[in-house]
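Q: What would this complex look like in 3D?
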Amino acid sequence: MITDTFSIKYQLVPHGTEETKIQFYNTIPEIFENLVQNNEQTVICTDSNVVNIPEVKTFLNKINNANVETVIIPAGEENKTLESVLSIIKAALDKSFTRNCKFIAIGGGVISDMTAFASSLYKRGAKLEIVPTTLLSMADACIGGKTGCDFDNYKNMIGTFYPASKLHFCPDFILSLPENEYLSGLAEVIKTAMLYAPKLFQILKTENEKIKSRNKEELYQIIKRCALAKSNIVEKDISETGLRKQLNLGHTFGHALESVAGFGKISHGQAVAWGLGRAIQLSLNLGLCEEDYKDDVFELLNIYGYSTEKTPKIIAEQENVQEKLIKAMKQDKKNDSNGITFVLQREINSTLIEIVQEKDILAVL
Amino acid sequence: MITDTFSIKYQLVPHGTEETKIQFYNTIPEIFENLVQNNEQTVICTDSNVVNIPEVKTFLNKINNANVETVIIPAGEENKTLESVLSIIKAALDKSFTRNCKFIAIGGGVISDMTAFASSLYKRGAKLEIVPTTLLSMADACIGGKTGCDFDNYKNMIGTFYPASKLHFCPDFILSLPENEYLSGLAEVIKTAMLYAPKLFQILKTENEKIKSRNKEELYQIIKRCALAKSNIVEKDISETGLRKQLNLGHTFGHALESVAGFGKISHGQAVAWGLGRAIQLSLNLGLCEEDYKDDVFELLNIYGYSTEKTPKIIAEQENVQEKLIKAMKQDKKNDSNGITFVLQREINSTLIEIVQEKDILAVL
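A: Here is my prediction, written as C-alpha cells for the whole assembly.
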C-alpha cells in the first residue's frame, strides 16, 4: 500500500544555455581575434587535419596562456569514441578547471559532437562554443545541441542535448575542404531544402554549377538558409520530442548504411544522400508522394553525383545486405518498441513520421 | 568583422521529467508489485549486496519477461566508475531497447547515481525510476537529479542533471543496513536539519535513542522531513546555479577527506559529518556564527559518534595531510577560478556561500 505521496515539480531551466548566437565572419582570422579570453579557463579541441589549416595553426601557435589547454584528436569518424571524449574531459581536469570553464570545438561534426558532449558532462556542465570548419557542421551538425559519440559499434548511442552559447561561422573554411567532405555537407543541405526550403531546393538546382565550384556568395546563402531553417525547428523542440524528429529524413537509411559499410568507409553525408532517395522511394511506394516529386529529388541527388540506387556500391559485395540494414535500422534512436520509424514526405515542405512494415522497407533495399 | 548574426532562443523543456513523484510504501514487496510493466523495455540495476536482500531476491527471481534485463554491479564506492555506467548502457543496447525504455535503480546512492547517469545518456535520455535502499539515498542522494560517477580518481567529476520520474520509498530497507551505512545516511540528515529544519534538529537530539535503534516511525519522520526539505530546494534550482549550492554544506571538506583517505576507505556520510563540524568551526573562526551554535552542532555530531576533530583518525598517519586536503578541495565542482568556495552558516537555517582564504582553511585542518 502506498501510504504517502508527494511530488517535486521542477522549474524549467535551460539545457546549458538559453540561446545560441550564430555569428558570420568575413575571414577566418577574425574568428580567432576574440575567441579566447585572457582570464577564462579554456579547453580547445580540434583534430589532426584541422590543426593544419594555416589560420588555425597560426592561432594555436600564438596562444601563450596557462589558462588554455589544447587537445588534438586523430581525425576521422572512427575516433568518435568515448575514449576521445574522456581525453577532452581529462585535459580540463588535469588543469583543475572549474565548472565555469569553456570548451571550444574547432572542427567538423565529429569534433563538435564530442567536445559538446565533454562540455555537458564536465562537472555536470561547462561553457561551450563551436567553430565549425565543414559545410556539414555549419549546415547541420553544430546547430541544435545534439552531442554524443559512437559506442559499441553503433552511431551516437550515448549523448546529451547541450547547445553551444556561440557558433562562429566563416564560409572560407569550406574552400579548402576535400571534395568528399564538401559533398557530405551538401547532402544535409539538400535534406533541409526538402524539409523546409523550396527556395533553397530551387537554388540547389539552378545554381548547381556555382555551388559545385564553391562560389563564396552561394556558400554563404545556402549556409544561412540551412542554419535559419534548422534553428527554427530546434528552438521549438530542442529535445526531439516532436517536430525535430523530421530532421532525421534520410537518416534511418543513412545510419544503417554507415553501420553496415563500417564507420568511416562512407561519409555521413553520402550515406544520408542515399537515405534521402530511399525515403522518397518509400514514400512513393506507400502512396504518400507523387512520382513527380520523387523524380525531382532523384534529379537533384544525381546532379551532385549521389547514388539513388537500391544498393550502394560500397556494400554491394556483402552478403545478406538487406538483413544487415534492417538489423541496424532497429537500433535507430527514433524507434519505439512498435517498429522501425521513418521520416517520409508527401511533397517538399510536407513531412510525416510513420512506422513502416518490414516488407515495405525491404522493397526499397 | 562579424557580417551577420542571429540567435536561436530555446523553449524551456524539462531535464528528462517535469516532476518527480515520491511514494512511501508500508512494506518492501508492495514496491515491487507494479514496478515492472509487462510491455515496457526495462533495465533493472542493482548491486551485489542489495541483490541479497530477501525481498529483492524474490522479486528478481520471479521476473520472467524478455523485456527486462538485470545488471548487477559489484557493491562499493570503488565501483562507481564509467565502466560500470557503460555496462548498464550496454545491457539496454544489447537488447536493442528504444529511447522509451525504462531504467530502474534498486540500491544506494552509488547505484542510483550511475543508473541515472546511464539513463540520461542512453539515446540521449530514457526513463528513470529509483528504489533507494539506504537512508543516505532516501534522505539525499536519489532526490534532485544529480547523476554521475567518479573519474580519474576524483568524485563525481562527470555527470548530468536528470531527475527520476518516480522514487519508491520504504523505511524497512533501513532496518537491515549495516551500522556504518546507517550512520552515513544520518550525516546527511543532520546536514539537512542544520540547513532548513530546526524541528528535525531537535528531534535528532531528543529522540536520539529511538533513532539509533531505528524505530520505524522515527525513520519515516526523518526521511519525510529530509525529502520535503530537499525537494523544496531542488524544485527551485535543479541545475545548481544558486540556492542548491547550500546543500553542499560539509561537502567540500567531506569530499576532500574521501579523496585523501582513498575512495571506499571512509563512508560518504562519515566524511560529510566531519565536514559539517569543520564548516561550522570555520564559520565560527570567520566570525559568522556564535560559539553556542558550534557547540550545538558538535554535540549532535558527537551523540551519533562522528568525529569533530581537526584530523580524523583515518588520515592521521599520512604525511602532509593539510596540503593533500587543500589540493583535493581545489577540485571541488563549486569553485570558480577565484578560490575555494565553502558553504558556511550564521546559525541554523541561515546559510551563506563564500570564498575562503587558504590560511583560514588551514586553521581548521
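A: To summarize the key features: Chain A has a mean pLDDT of 94. Residues 216-234 of chain A form the longest helix (19 residues).
Q: Very helpful, thank you.
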